[in-house]
Sequence to fold (180 residues):
Amino acid sequence: MSNLRLRKYGDPILRKKARWVEKIGSEERDLLSHMAKIMHENNGIGLAAPQIGVDKRIVIVDTEGELLKLINPQILEMEGEEWLSEGCLSLPEIFVPVNRAKKIKIEALNEDKKLISFTIEGFSARVIQHEVDHLNGVLIIDYATEERKRRMKRSLEEIANHTRMLLEMEKRRGEKMYFK
Ligand SMILES: [Zn+2]
Fold:
């Protein structure tokens, strides 16, 4: 797991529907601890596996006092709604007001393979919805009005250009090794 780095806007993995996890073993547990490390290093409060380049339906959410680790999470029920401006580690300096359910019922597997189900509300419920969106290739910018999209255009292009540059460098690094 050497190539785990934070993926930003423009990286194709952020637009993919992530794959359902079919087994929970040491690889998945390793991934969870890498995710926690990268999230904390970047002062995040939630992270989805595709955001570090891994095609798996796994998210972590930092609720106050507890780090939730959710594998194959599904939102079963939603209640209420509330607008709040959201940011995203994959979209630095971009903020978009997003209308989300206030209260949700979640079902997922935990790292011990146990099926868990719980109801959660408030800010953590919002973060879970944001992370589950990532598993479906959805980003906060998709909720922006046309006017806001126009205003964000240049910033988004800058992030995407930087992402392209990094991906290109990684590709070339691979080629060089091939010819050695
Ligand atoms: Zn995000």
